[in-house]
Write the structure tokens for this entry.
Amino acid sequence: MLLAISFYNMEQVLERFLKYVVVDTQSDVDTDLTPSTPGQMIFAESLAEELKALGLSEVSLDENGYVMATVPATSDEELPVVGFVAHMDTSPDFSGKHVKPRVINNYAGGDLVLNEEKNIVLKVSDFPEVEQYVGQDLVVTDGTTLLGADDKAGVAEIVTAAAYLIDHPEIKHGKIRIGFTPDEEIGAGADHFDVKKFGADFAYTLDGSQIGELEFENFNAAGAKITVQGRMVHPGYAKNKMRNSMRIANQIMTMLPRHETPEHTEGYEGFYHLMSFNGDVEKTEMMYIIRDFKRDRFEDRKREMQHLINKINAEYGEGTATVEIKDQYYNMREKVEPVMHVVDYAKQAMEEVGVTPIVKPIRGGTDGSRLSYMGLPCPNIFAGGHNFHGRFEFVPVQSMQKAVEVILKIAERVAKK
């Protein structure tokens, strides 16, 4: 049975993935719309139609771009309803327009030339993990865009698994709900997710990276906007009069701990991350994200940032600098630990299909973290990709195939209790 599943999954998941990634679904933090970009709704509409054509029931698409559907139960037993969730948008950090995916069959190892004309090369010296997949088939970009495996690999895997279950009613399972969300990349993926309508007892996001990843804890997260007000005076006559907002903003940057940044941290270490810096003499704005796994340390980081702003105002005058800090999501561990059997289902499923579970914290966020706090415990499973949000993104086809098999095994495992 596994050989038949593997062949089917290999063909179907790749075909879907290549079709999905060419749709531009980059999200945009500045539109204040849901979905934030029209491409996401276009993709959502096509997904809803595909799910109907595959024979899923209760297919819905709401005005905010959320797609939900049901794989009906094939067991007469009263079983938990399990859900699988992925997001449709791609990151605004790098272009997702005119994606040109390419499949490298039977990767032989070594550097990968993504774009000979532009001399864009995925170098093993920079990304040594690529050589874990020698002999496998890799989907890459042409180096001018991201690929979109985050999270269209997850979307393709869920749809493929759902299609397989519809075609194989002999596999006994309970009711399965699937859901696709917009705007996860800008922290809004769960904003309008109707947990009651979804109706699952627990769920899994297919939004992790390398094969085997299984995550049930993530950062506590906040965003911070710092605004510095300056004063422009002719530079020839500026002594004791000019107040250069950019220089003051730079002072704030240097007051934060130098090594508590993404490029200096790993594992359970938190950080402050400067996302953008825009300004002139009169006014400068900086956008930061604040991350930490421990809730008390997370709160300390927010207080520390406010403390630095207070020090700047004490030096330059009240109102020189302001900070707006907004919590984004919290560590899902608190909500998943009481139902650890949900994590056990995923671990057992991986082992049954020959995947070694890699239980690790998410150094980022996922819809699952917010959904867990909305009453839907939702650990995260690998989707298979690497180097998300940039031109060197790639995904092994075999990893996507295994993700499909894990979904199928979870469905079977839940039915066996």
